[in-house]
Amino acid sequence: MGGLQWKRRVRGMLTLLFVSVCLTMLISHLLWPSITDLTEVEKCPACYGTSFCPAITGGFLTLHSFGAFAGFVNILGSKNVLFGMLGNQKVVLKKLGHTVELEQLDKMICKGAGLSSSCHVHEAIWQQGDLLHSMRQHVASQDSSLLLCPSVANLECLLSSVLYKTKGTSTEASLANIWTTLMINPEPLLLQVLQEQDGWPVTKYMGACGRVVVEEYAGEILTSYHNAPWLQRVHLAHQLLIAAHNFTDSHPLFGFYLTDISADNIAVDAQGKLRFVDLENVIVVDKNVPNEDRPQSWTIPHVSETFDCEGCFAFSSEDICSHRMSDHNFYAVCQHLLSPLAALDMIPGGLLHDMPPAHARVSELVQKCSESTEPSGRLRAAQDLTELLAEVLQQHGYSSMQPKSPSCSLWDGCLEA
């Protein structure tokens, strides 16, 4: 009898060990899945591109434990975001959407080709008809995460830097990559339009391999600096205002209005440089549309409506699209990041909370920039606030760290056209 009990105990221990090993392998796979499996490169050209594939197949990119939190987020089916290392450089890997969203895209491609929902999308993508026409229809929709308005005639010009950059890839394959990306999340396209190396306050786009894009790790999110020394927060606030100006006015052809500006979509690197890391939701206004396409209110600056409540980020895409210039970006930065009306669960009291008494003028201008309803009132307040913060920074030796205006050299061909 004793021998039988011993055998049962051993059998139970072995079963427990087997289950433990299986669970460990499952959790390890969920936290750090195979990069090759993540890419789904077999679905190309119904993918985001292949420029980064050599780094992955060559073993230069590895998933890393500093992104373990992203692994847990991935288990919960959130954003399919993982962290990794490219040599000694920290990077972020993005699938650009929920697993369900990617599955829905595949079904849409199959349906568009008149095939069953389990078709081979790498073949079905060629049966979608005119992809450029489909993209124009997509960016014209108010429901699109990338809205181009008031006309979509210059879509090719907007995306020219993406098309011209894909050396070694056919125009048809490039269009398929761009179409696929646009249907899921336009962020990689915008990161190639507004390039970090040209001075735009965004994270650096490094490339794509199948259904994964790789971006440079931009640092800790802005919420981590909520209780930083006041002058450090002034430096960040100044960069935010410069960014709002650049997105609005620095590009000669288009204005870029971010509709999901929040403290957790902005990162700060070790040098204190601020960058926007989530460009999924953007309204792009074509500033040079023909006269016949211009709304009656075109030349009048748009004034964003303000709400006296914490975190009420409301806007009208139709109103923004009806004006050549909007104060939307300044409204978003001043009210939802700098002022006491900022979301309590993100950045309570605003980034510039606990204002020193000697800088009461800063507080006054933050309020005007946040709540002004006068024509061009918010724009003037934002300009005055930017200059005042620059003076404060200069007095304390921050002048050499001021952001530079971005370059638009990639757009010479469009300008000539």
Automatic annotation (TrEMBL):
It is found in: Secreted. One of its GO terms (cellular component) is extracellular region. Residues 179-371 form the FAM69 protein-kinase domain. Keywords: Membrane, Secreted, Signal, Transmembrane, Transmembrane helix. The keyword Chloroplast does not apply. The keyword Secreted applies. Pfam families: PIP49_C. InterPro entries: DIPK2A/B (IPR020519), FAM69_kinase_dom (IPR022049). The chain crosses the membrane at residues 12-32. It comes from the Eukaryota. Belongs to the DIPK family. This is FAM69 protein-kinase domain-containing protein. It comes from Zootermopsis nevadensis. The lineage of its organism: Eukaryota, Metazoa, Ecdysozoa, Arthropoda, Hexapoda.
